[in-house]
Amino acid sequence: MSEEQRQWMYKNISPEKKPAQGNPLPPQIFNGDQYCGDYDSFFEAKESNTVLSFLGLKPRLTSTAEP
């Protein structure tokens, strides 16, 4: 990660996820410019099967028709 990318990450993290002192450590997860959360938030989304929502993605429609 370049210094420019690191600074962008620090600037774009949600205020409630910023530590009282210092900078948050990677991985911080973004979808484009939208902050999604940190690793712990991602892990919780994985465990609760809500990763698509965590990432701000819409679920794909699956076909129920058989070939």
UniProtKB/TrEMBL annotation:
This is SH3 domain binding glutamate rich protein like 2. GO terms for cellular component: cytoplasm; nucleus. It comes from Cavia porcellus (Guinea pig). Its main location: nucleus. Gene3D superfamilies: Glutaredoxin (3.40.30.10). Pfam families: SH3BGR. Residues 1-26 are annotated as: Disordered. Keywords: Nucleus, SH3-binding. The keyword Cell cycle does not apply. PANTHER family: SH3 DOMAIN-BINDING GLUTAMIC ACID-RICH-LIKE PROTEIN, SH3 DOMAIN-BINDING GLUTAMIC ACID-RICH-LIKE PROTEIN 2. Belongs to the SH3BGR family.
